Protein 1
Amino acid sequence: MRYMETTNKGHLINNPNKDTSAEYCRRTWKVGKELLKGISESLGLEANYIEDTMNLDSGWQMIAANMYPPCPQPELAMGIPPHSDHGLLNLLMQNGVSGLQVLHNGKWINVSSTVNCLLVFVSDHLEVVSNGKYKSVLHRAVVSNKATRMSLAVVIAPSLDTVVEPANELLDNQRNPAAYVGMKHTDYMQLQRSNRLNGKAVLDKVKI
């Protein structure tokens, strides 16, 4: 498992509490792997299917810290525009200040912010592996004029050299053909970095 720390602008940071960060990453990695076992079984696959095919023994993990100070005119600003995440899962912790919204049935829904609680998002690569049975979550962050919102996101992702594609066991050429083309994780990340955050624009590029 490799992990990277970033700011909300995606820049690498020097963290004086590296031991704490590393321990947090180790523990959330274990949580992510257990969740993926349950997801594998829910798809009718072996419990370790996603872990094995996505090469999670050398998987990629990213931790991103975000801070949104109070904004005097929140109606004119956006914390983070609508997007979905690369990787399999995103484990998000918040400081109790609301601001996260998810798109549901064409409407933006406020997600309550509970402290000491992990919110789990399905990410793009899980949508691909499941051939669309699991959908990555389109979300955004809005700002407030009252309080500072902070969040800590941990992305659980395949190894960089893994080609992410629909699980063969879920495919049927007539009833359930592949809905996505395979793409190496590192190429997907490069594609994401070269595009502005714009909904599921990157995921759409691998749809058939």
Note: Confidence is low (pLDDT under 50) at residues 2-14.
Protein 2
Amino acid sequence: MSLKIKHLSKSFGTTESLKNVSLTFEPQTIYGLLGRNGAGKSTLMSILNNRIIPNDNSETKVTLDDEPLLENDKQLSRLFLMSEVNLYPNNMRVKTIFKWTERFFGDFDWDLAQRMTDHFNLNTKKRLQSLSTGYRTIAKIIIALCTPSDYVFLDEPVLGMDAANRKLFYSFIIEAYEKRPRTFVISTHIIDEIASLIETAIVINNGEIISQIDIDELQMKGKVVSGPQEDATIYTANLNVIGADYLGGSADIYTIGDLPKPVPANLTVSGMTLQNYFVQLTTRDTDKLN
């Protein structure tokens, strides 16, 4: 049940949004799709859900279970994209939208939907246009988590939500996954909040996939070496360094892999967070303090 992408590109005029992207989403896995503004995340998810047409390229292949995905209604019905784009009539009541979703996708999880509306205190009798930004997001989240789709793409799913509701959303992601394991792909700028949810992080930058790493591997092998700049630079000279921050005579150097023993007494080693990893991979040199 793998979703496989090979040699996928997309241009808007002279701007290349995606450049020869090849990627595999495995079944029953929670991914984080991470990138800076304009990196190509939304374009990628929109193409996979048939909302944007990719460049015409004979080498491009997008398959689900080895069947072509694009323009294939049967296979596309197994995918669901929640994004900030509103595809629902503004004057429609939330509960009616739930019913429409069930007609299209089938097997809507009404029990989970009821629990979520109760916990979020969402009035499903209200029309979509009368909801605040945060509650429109909540309504779309409920729809996404209650569909039977095998691949659920969540593009900026916590837009307009306060911290308490974001925490509640993350707990419902876990509940929905445990109740019916499937693949979730979460794209968000609030990286630290999803780090404990996801199993694999995919980093996209300037339309290209620059990294794919298991979170367990990052936790085991991602290290930050801190201390005097000269000593830290010498110690990490032969390591897999992905970036560094400098301030005055001090340095934080970000590495992936085992560190040589012993660590000099004037240096400290700490774990690298997913946020650290993402920032170091995607921050241009001109953005960093020197």
Note: The first strand starts at residue 3 and ends at 12.
